Amino acid sequence: NKAYIEVKNLKKYFKVGRHATLKAVDDVSFTIKKGETLGLVGESGCGKTTCGRTIMGLYEATSGQVLYDGVDLHSIKGEERRKFARKAQIIFQDPYASLDPRMTVGNIISEGMDIHNIGTKEERQKKVYELLEMVGLNREHASRFPHEFSGGQRQRIGIARALAIDPEFIVCDEPISALDVSIQAQVVNLLIKLQRELGLTYLFIAHDLSMVKHISDRVGVMYLGHLVELAPSEELYANPLHPYTKALMSAIPLPDPNVSKAKKRIILEGDVPSPINPKPGCRFASRCKYAKKECSEVNPELKEVKPGHFAACHLL
Ligand code: SF4
């Protein structure tokens, strides 16, 4: 199964003032296969959202490539770029802020079809009804406004909007973080159902590790702009190799308290350092109890430690 999306040495830097550079995404590479869900996790500020937005083309990359089916997104312009924009969509974190309160739900969902001139007015109307039903709402909801809905329902509207122009790839940018825990599983299950029905490919960005495991085929872990580990979901959760991933995993509450003895919680000492003008070497060195001299001098490369399991650490 060949790669559908290839991210190669992607960098996204932001200038801060005159002399500082925020290295939000710093030399990140990975691939996503067609129909796959790649989870991307890490604490806030690790660069996962910037990474997702740069892959979508919402930010221009500082350097590196994002290839969709072999075509470099950042090299195409005009009509070609417009065509691309139909293939990739995004679902935002905050279902309150991302829906225009003055528009009806029907208009919100059909806006993408209007912009891309898809179908007649009647066809668009019909599609809005179909999409509402597909995400577990109904056609009566089309004439209502966002404030009349709960958080979970609004996120369903956000999903219907993303699906309206038949995308192939969806960046789910923390789509459940703003929702009640009781609603989160429903939205994740809806995304899984839609993926099966429509053959979608997802990049699922989150800081909730248990939900990421549930939806992802493989998971990547980011720390301060670097991808530090990448592995199949089951493998990563059963056998994390990078000291940072181990600490993240140990913080997930376990359903059975007797199991927790083997997986003692690792408390991370110190604060997350600033991504502005980061120091050379391993970005995790200031918080890593295994750090040695080499760690603060040489940045460890992401290497395949076991088949399909990649990690970036001098210990491995
Ligand atoms: Fe820790 Fe060094 Fe590995 Fe970084 S490279 S995670 S500092 S042991």
UniProtKB/TrEMBL annotation:
Any one GO MF term held by the record is: ATP hydrolysis activity
Membership in a protein family: Belongs to the ABC transporter superfamily.
Q: Which Gene3D superfamilies match?
A: P-loop containing nucleotide triphosphate hydrolases (3.40.50.300)
What keywords would UniProt list here?
A: ATP-binding, Nucleotide-binding, Transport
What's the protein called, per UniProt?
ATP-binding cassette domain-containing protein
Q: Which InterPro entries does the annotation name?
A: AAA+_ATPase, ABC_transp_ATP-bind, ABC_transporter-like_ATP-bd, ABC_transporter-like_CS, Oligopep_ABC_C, P-loop_NTPase
GO process terms (BP): peptide transport; transmembrane transport
Q: Which residues form a coiled coil?
A: none
Task: Name all ABC transporter domain ranges.
Answer: 5-249
Q: State the PANTHER family in the record.
A: D,D-DIPEPTIDE TRANSPORT ATP-BINDING PROTEIN DDPF-RELATED, TRANSPORT ATP-BINDING PROTEIN
The record ties this protein, via PROSITE patterns, to: ABC_TRANSPORTER_1, ABC_TRANSPORTER_2
